[in-house]
Queue: 2 jobs
Job 1
Amino acid sequence: EVIAVTRSRRIFYVAFTAFCIIYTILSFQLEVGGFATPGPGFVPCFLGVVGILLSSILTVSSFREELEEEKEKTNKSSLIRLGLYVLACFAFLPLFSFLGSLLSVVILVFLLAKISGLKGWWRPIVLAVVTSSVFYWLFGAVLEVPLPQGVISFV
């Protein structure tokens, strides 16, 4: 299936390419190291370069396609949804240290899933619990990042 290229999609691709370029430039300020002894900037630089390559491919391919008129205008419900996304993310920040990482990520993912329109209750709950568990395992156990325990300090 061919995805129609709209003007807003092109703008997004160009903006994301610019973001990746800035991100990569800033990540080179960290010590990169080499493959044998990578420094703290190795992964950010690698991801930045990959981001530049992939977003550049999308940008160039979008300009090769014929521009299609946007059928959907920004309506009130999409602006409300965007506002709810931003509100949920800002509410997450103070909750992260108060409730702890595990519980606050569950709440955030659940809210974002419901705002996005995920039907029912079980799917958002399972998605939130699995996402939070993987996040907690990856950062807490594997990478040994000290995560806030919050009110559930027994975990």
Job 2
Amino acid sequence: VIPDAIILANAENRIEFLNPTAESLFGYSLLELQNKSLELIIPKAFQQQHNEKFKRAVSDPNSGYNRNIIAIEGLKKSQETFPVEVMLSRLIIKGKIYFAAVLRDISRRIIVEKKLIDQTAYLEKEANGSFVTVGKIIESGKASIHWAGDLDVFER
């Protein structure tokens, strides 16, 4: 089983293929989405922006819509939105333009990052300054915690 969802769309903004992980992630079968607009899996609030960027990407291979990893929201069949990380690639197959998207649901990662931020704030408050962080707590999806001074046992 491939852990990431994969969607292939043509230059007309229509879905040509999705793997089983994408079917599970969005709640649609390939038959339900094949030859349908990508707008079915994009929340309404982002559709206009997507369409503008997509048109630019079709006409300009240097538009920046290639091999970038972006965090956006996806739209499930149930109309539930969820955070998703997407890597896009512009492809030319037999003279036709396609876009491949590799998607990953980042809902769990966002929850963990928030818990780390909350826990660090709690520890900083409880430690009365003996616990400090250097730089960002969350950077590139990795947590970094740096200690200064004596380490104490904290009780809630």
